[in-house]
Structures are given as C-alpha cells and as structure tokens.
Amino acid sequence: MSFLKRFQTSLESLHEPSAYKNHDTKKYVVAYSGGVDSLVLLHCFKKINATARAAHVHHGLQAVADDWVTHCQQTCKQLNIPLDILYVDAKQKSGESPEESARNARYQALQNNLTEDEYLVTAQHLNDQAETLLLQLFRSAGSAGLSAMPASKKIGEHVHLRPLLSFSRNEIECFAKENNLQWVEDPSNNDVSFDRNFLRKNIFPQLKKRWPEVTTQLSNVASLQSNNLDVLEDMAAIDLASAITTQKNQLSICVFEVMSMLSIERLQQLSSPRLLNLLRYWLITTLNKKPTRNLLEEIEKSLINSQADANPDIVFFGYAFRKFQGKLYLLKINNVPTTESSQEWNPISLLKLPDLNLQLKAVMTVGEGLNKKLLDESLIVSFRKGGEKFHPAGRRHSQSLKKLLQEASVPPWERDVVPLVYFGDELIAVTGLWVSREFSMGEGESGWVVEIEKL
C-alpha cells in the first residue's frame, strides 16, 4: 500500500463523527512547524484534497524563529493552503521543564485557534511514540502514561488526531525526499540535555542494534496499555457513579464553589488500587487536570482512611479537598476571601462584597423577616470572630452561632464567610439562614429579609 493510501486509511479510522454536528465536511488544522514531519503531514492533506489549513506556533525560543515563519508562509503559499501564525510566551514556568512549558503553550494556542467542527492534526510518528513510552517508563508512569500518545483524543470541544503514529521516521523522511520537499531543521533537536533528544541520539541507536524492531515493539506496548487504560476508565466511571453524592446544607449560596462530592463510606469499600483509579478519573473528568500519584495517595491516607475529625489542607492548583459529614469535597478556592473588616449598610441599597463575590439586598416579605423600621437604619455587616450568641426566630432559646451553623450542616470552611448583619451590637440576621427573634415580624406583618446573590 502506498504512503498516501496508508495515510488516508489511518486518517479515516480516527474520525469521531459524534464529536461534531457537521459530519459530512471534515475540516482540519495542521500544526505546521516547518520540520519534515509536519511538512509531510501537510503535503498529504494537499494530495488527498482534504479541507485543511495550517497553524504555525512561534515560540520565540530560537534566533531563527522568524526565518521559520517565512519558510512556512512560502510553503503554504506554494501549496495554496491558508496559514495562521500563532505567537506564544513559551518561557519555562515554575514546576515545569522547558519542554513542558513550550508544549503546553503550543497546544493551548492551537486549541484556541480551532473553530467549530475543526480537527487538530499533529505529526507525531512511530519513533515519537516509542520515545514517549520510554520517557514515561522512567517517570514511573502507570497505564495512562505508558499508553503514550493516543491516535485520537478529545480536547475541549474538539478532537486531536495523530494519523502518522503508525509511520516510522525513516518512512516519513523517504517520502519527503521522493517528493523533493524542503523543510527546516530545529537546532535544539541536537541538544542531548533534553531527555527526548538524549534517547533519540544516544539510546535508541544502541537498542536498534540489539533489537531492530524496538520502535514497533514499544509502540505495540503503548497500544496494549491504552487498551488497559480503557478498561480502567470504564471501571472508574462505574465506581464514580456509585460514589457521587450531593450537598445538603441550608445555605442558598456558598462562597466556595463545590465542584463535586463523593461518599467516603462508598470510597472506603474499594480496594486501594481501585480507589486511586477512581480518584484519578474523578479529577481528570471534573477538572481536566492530571493528578500525581503522591496527591492521590495523600487524599486516600489523610482524608478517606483517616480519623473522622482529621481534615488536613490538601490543595491542587486552585482547588482544595475537604472532608465533612462523610463526604469528600472538591472545592474551587482561586481566591481566599478577606473577612476581617466590617461594612456599613443601608438596606435600601445593595451591598457588594467583592472579596466574596457576593452582594446583599433587602427583599420585602409578609409574616417573616426583620422589622421594617430597620430599613431606615445604618446596619453593620461583619463575619464570625468566635463566641457569638444568637436567638433565631421560632426557637425558644439562644444558642452559640457555632452550634447553630453545625446543626444547619454548614461546612466549616463556609462558616467564617457567612455575612452577619448587626444593628448596633445586636446580631439581627445570619444571611441566608435566620433572623433574630427580637427583631422579627409576626404573622401577617410586613417585614424584610436579607437576600444573598452572586456578583
């Protein structure tokens, strides 16, 4: 079978019709670096008359980066293929290797460039797959890492295709030479301080002397691991469905967004490997972020299989894990609100609490709520400091605010950010929960309540 026929067969096998509304017209965006692999990929799309355009990412990391742009523009002009130049900041970020920072910036730019119903197509091949498998092996990766690069993968609302994964580097270079294609060489590909280049230059030549089919064999291992991963994810989906639960507390609006909750009792029934598999799947499907094994084991040890009152602070990017009333919470905590200051409030107007992303307003009621006379007073909105007593309307006795919040199943992390409304030194309302018995209205009388809204 010819190279082009193999390519077309590979491409057609990767399509996911359910991914897009328009199944008839396939539209592709080819990530074109100017190198031989992506040039051959682009040339193949031209040869099979597919609807394709190119996108070149300018990382700004090489002195010749502008020359590459010129080369890509000339090539695409010759092929009559539209080209977008995407400029990114690919400088190394904290906690990432230089390669990882550049790769993340590149894929984010490419994904942002996609329009509706377009496939992103990249030129990774058989040798890249074998290198990726070894790199993941040296990082102690599990099935997800050892499955290396999938030939087809969902990215947000789009699909990422790698139709050259079954082609070797040698086959691609031979095709390029046979078709007199001109490409650029990235000088950084010779820098063996990069792990992938070290494998490519120093390790694989030795492996091939001993095992000539090593790249194909390693790629087959990745494929088998991918099948294993599919089974693990199917199992995780079943476990997640039985463990997922809902929030039950009396607060109408919470400051910290609850992304998801799991039943700790259900989690404790799973074996450790099955539990870690579920947690990994949960975080990837909920946050689209891959957790480390250390994080998963810390959640298992410190939150799931720990004493009931143990509640350590475990943070993952802008999210936190908490335990409360038999549930494992995943919370969004991008900004920790400041609640030390108090604010004056005239209830006839809105009160914005930007640190909490909330606003308060007075809503008229009948037979409940606060005395209407308080609408003309200057009130104070503050937060818990500890030791507050409160007598809610409808109750016989006052209690500590802490106990009342516990009885209402308000999670500990929300208790300190519930706005408290004072008239002088008197606590008259706990926003979203209760009004004071002393300042409340009787049956049939007009009153008002403090309503809380998101900004």
UniProtKB/TrEMBL annotation:
Keyword check for Cytoplasm, yes or no. yes
Q: Which InterPro entries match?
A: Lysidine-tRNA-synth_C, Rossmann-like_a/b/a_fold, TilS/TtcA_N, tRNA_Ile_lys_synt, tRNA_Ile_lys_synt_N, tRNA_Ile_lys_synt_subst-bd
Species classification:
unclassified sequences, metagenomes, ecological metagenomes
Q: Which reaction does it catalyse?
A: cytidine(34) in tRNA(Ile2) + L-lysine + ATP = lysidine(34) in tRNA(Ile2) + AMP + diphosphate + H(+)
Q: What's the protein here called?
A: tRNA(Ile)-lysidine synthetase
Keyword match Cell membrane: no
Q: What is its EC number?
A: 6.3.4.19
The Lysidine-tRNA(Ile) synthetase C-terminal domain covers which part of the protein? 379-452
Where it sits in the cell: the answer is:
Cytoplasm
